[in-house]
Amino acid sequence: MKRGIHMHAQGSVLLGVDPLVLLDHYEIDYHHSYAQDSPFFVGLSKKKLLGSCCTECGYIYATPRSHCMECGAATDWCELPLTGRVHTFTTCYFGGEVFLDETPFTLILVEFDGVDSLFLARLKGMEPSTVHIGLPVVARFAKTPSFKVTDVWFEHTHR
Ligand SMILES: [Zn+2]
After folding, report:
1. Tally of domains in the chain
2. Would the pTM count as exceeding 0.85?
3. How much of the chain exceeds pLDDT 70, in percent?
4. How far apart are CA 4 and CA 50, in angstroms?
5. Residue 21 C-alpha to ligand 1 middle, in angstroms?
């Protein structure tokens, strides 16, 4: 077996023959449209949490949703409170590549007064063993938005 043999001008490298293994470079520019969810992510950049309010029955979702799952009517965007409580939580000892350096970290479902569904987010600034149901939390936003869900997280607030 020979290693490091260049196969062609594009840069493939033969790493092995049994089994046959090639090293190739792969790169792509990816256009990711947020489509109807766009206002939610723009809202994060303005330090706002936007939920979805049903125009018929008044059900309020803590997440983007174009139509109501209770009655089927269209929703409007509405601003959510920035403070809430931990409804439930879990400690993650593994995660996607972006989050590996932060393990262990805590994921929480946030409940807000007057809102009918929950919001999934990270809880920062607390040892996982000290987190509990009912803990008051406040939304924090990235100073420089990346227009991703990591633009918002929660921290414990004393009130
Ligand atoms: Zn509805």
Report:
1. 2
2. no
3. 93
4. 53
5. 55
Domain range for 53 is 35-156
Residue found under tokens 């979702």: 61
Pair type for strands 105-111 and 83-92: antiparallel
State the Rg of the chain over Cα.
Answer: 22
CA of 75 to the centre of ligand 1 (A): 8
- Regarding whether 123 and 104 lie in a shared domain, the answer is yes
Cα–ligand 1 centroid distance for 117 (angstroms): 13
The answer to whether residues 13 and 53 belong to one domain is no
Give the span between the Cα atoms of 89 and 132, in whole angstroms.
8
Sorted by sequence, the CB contacts under 8 Å of residue 159 that are 6+ apart come out as 83, 136
C-alpha angle with apex 51: 47 to 53, nearest 5 degrees?
145
Give me ligand 1 centre to Cα 77, in Å.
13
Q: Report CA(48)–ligand 1 centroid distance (Å).
A: 23
Structure tokens at 130: 């000290």
In this predicted structure, the answer to whether residue 58 has a pLDDT above a threshold of 60 is: yes
Residue 25 confidence class, pLDDT cut points 50, 70, 90: confident
List, edge to edge, every strand of the sheet that includes 50-54: 60-61, 50-54, 75-79
